[in-house]
Amino acid sequence: MPGDARRALADVVERRIGMMPEAYRAALLAVDRADFVRREDVSRAWFDEPLPLDTPHGRGVATVSAPHMYVLGFEALGLGPGDRLLELGSGSGYGAALAAHVVGSEGYVTTVEADPHLARIALRTTAHLPNVRVLHDDGLRRGDLLASHTKCWLTFAVGELPSAFLDQLPPGAVLVAPVGPPHDQRLLRYIRGADGVAVEDLGAVCFVSARPLIEESGS
Ligand SMILES: C[S@@+](CC[C@H](N)C(=O)[O-])C[C@H]1O[C@@H](n2cnc3c(N)ncnc32)[C@H](O)[C@@H]1O
Fold first, then answer.
1. Which of 78, 154, 168, 210 ranks highest by number of CB atoms within 10 Å?
2. Structure confidence by residue, pLDDT tens digits, 198-209
3. 195 CA distance to ligand 1 centroid (A)?
4. How far are the Cα atoms of 24, 28, 75, 166, 176 from residue 145, in angstroms, in the given order?
């Protein structure tokens, strides 16, 4: 993506959601979104809109989210240098690549993808980033990973966050998730404190829905 187009994208995002921290803007400029979209969508890569991802395991089940959604997510998490981010829903790896720039070499990003086709794509697109690890699994069943991360966010919507997952949120860790039925979700922030988990409603969002794990041989 030419530098001018990347700067224009960052400007559009700021016009939409307000000034963003310099580190988030730097990540938008550093990561070429064209590397994460379908070949036929490359000309739209620098527009602030979600773009579809193809997978043999379903239609309309995955997108590269609109860039401003990553910035909103990072702001909700308070993502910064040294953070250890657990991302559920890798898609093609764009969010993980942006986050890797924000957390820097002192931090790391673990991203979990249920679809083996997309997990392979994310593995390829983030292979040059030493602080990104891609796992093929059902993220909602990997609450065990929460202990080794400071922040967690879901890039797909859940009707309700499974308590078996939430129960493993360590003290002080921040979890951000779109919760609610298709097309009517709220972005919720969970923080475990001394008195239990505090939940804050950050507003309306629209994400693709959670999917079950698709085994490597699945069709
Ligand atoms: C909005 S898309 C991904 C956005 C992605 N972060 C990006 O940068 O392009 C949501 C992704 O979550 C994945 N997903 C849905 N349910 C999942 C689950 N239970 N565990 C892991 N990944 C899941 C979908 O296959 C899809 O790739």
1. 154
2. 999 999 999 999
3. 31
4. 25, 27, 22, 11, 15
